[in-house]
Design brief:
Elements lengths: L1 H9 L3 E3 L9 E8 L3 E8 L10 E3 L4 H5 L9 E3 L2
């Protein structure tokens, strides 16, 4: 979580504009997941979004591909 705080403070994320008003804007930070998959961490630009929440997206279903369950840790490496 300390790394995530540092990334949010120091790295300029890629801005994602919503397709319509039912979605929010977000910032995207590219990551490598478990040194196997490229993906991104999304930071929704909404008021009161939890500071300790991390949303990860990837081209595969990560729980299945990595054989992990809710609450298990995975390694993310922020990339440029």
């Amino acid at each position: 979580m300390e790394t995530w705080k540092q990334v949010k403070d120091e790295v300029r994320g890629i801005e994602i504009s919503p397709p319509d008003a039912s979605f929010c804007q977000a910032l995207c930070f590219p990551v490598e997941i478990e040194r196997r998959y490229k993906g991104a961490v999304l930071l929704p630009q909404v008021k009161d979004y939890p500071k300790d929440k991390i949303e990860v997206i990837a081209p595969v279903r990560l729980k299945e591909a990595l054989k992990v369950r809710d609450g298990e840790r995975i390694t993310l490496e922020f990339i440029e």
